[in-house]
Design goal:
Blueprint: E1 2-7, H1 18-29, E2 35-40, E3 52-56, H2 61-71, H3 74-84, E4 88-92, H4 94-98, E5 102-104, E6 110-112, E7 119-122, E8 131-140, E9 147-156, E10 159-162, E11 170-174, E12 184-185, E13 187-189, E14 192-195, H5 201-204, H6 206-217, H7 232-246
Parallel strand pairs: 1-2, 1-3, 3-4, 4-14, 5-7
Antiparallel strand pairs: 5-6, 7-10, 8-9, 8-11, 11-12, 13-14
Length: 249
């Protein structure tokens, strides 16, 4: 049984981030893998089962302020412990920002993060634009090390800067990424991932969805292998979108 813990599902669901939950659930069901989805709200404890995926979506500054307070206690400590133990966590946009050390709002309020990633997020300056548009990112597949691509959509004002103790999820081919300056997108540490890519991310990138599922299931069975699915249609859709984003046609 795979358990998906959807953190703050009612508050952090910008640009269809709930689609990440649906994608994981369907790709498990098509393989006959039982799945349970648990929505974890404010003040509710995280209760891992041993075979888990934890998902953060994106939200507005008001929601992030409420979350920062909620994560400042035992829930944040639990998430840090889960990551250190190899648990699988994905944060998108606002969720990603809160996985760092701090997030500063445009009004100057500095919100503490969970500290899973060595990074911080600064607000955009008055003359700076929001970072908006389709994104194409080159990543190194966690399992095989081969170079792959992922696509998505970003819309964020904050600029995220990585520290020395975290690696980017990937290299921007098209788009802005973490800050529009250094060519990085997202962050990765152990089995924790952060990204600005909405759209939602996982339905557009099924190989990455499978990687998260595999990482979670191998927590209870190191030899587990996923049954291949016929992703011909998904592959064509991805190639079409990636080509359009990159201006290849």
């Amino acid at each position: 049984m795979l358990t998906i813990h959807h953190l703050y599902a009612d508050m952090m669901n910008l640009y269809g981030d709930r689609g990440n939950v649906i994608s994981i659930k369907k790709r498990c069901q098509w393989r006959g893998i039982p799945v349970e989805v648990i929505d974890v709200g404010l003040t509710e404890r995280i209760r891992p089962t041993g075979c888990d995926l934890f998902l953060f979506g994106g939200g507005q500054d008001r929601e992030q302020a409420l979350l920062a307070e909620d994560l400042s206690g035992s829930k944040g400590a639990d998430l840090r412990a889960i990551v250190e133990d190899g648990g699988v966590v994905l944060g998108v946009c606002g969720g990603y920002q809160l996985m760092g050390h701090s997030y500063e709002t445009p009004e100057g309020q500095k919100l503490p993060g969970v500290g899973i990633f060595d990074l911080h997020t600064e607000p955009r300056r008055p003359k700076e634009e929001r970072l908006i548009g389709n994104v194409l990112v080159r990543v190194r597949a966690p399992e095989t090390g081969e170079t792959r691509e992922i696509v998505g959509f970003e819309n964020h004002g904050g600029r995220t800067y990585l520290g020395e103790d975290v690696k980017p999820l990937g290299e921007v081919i098209v788009g802005y990424g973490n800050n529009g300056k250094d060519g990085t997108e997202g962050a990765r540490r152990l089995n924790a991932y952060g990204t600005y890519l909405h759209g939602s991310l996982l339905p557009k990138n099924p190989w990455l969805t499978d990687q998260f599922i595999l990482n979670a299931l191998r927590r209870t069975d190191e030899s587990f292998e996923l049954e291949p699915l016929d992703d011909t249609t998904e592959g064509r859709a991805f190639s079409s979108v990636a080509a359009r984003v990159a201006g290849r046609r």
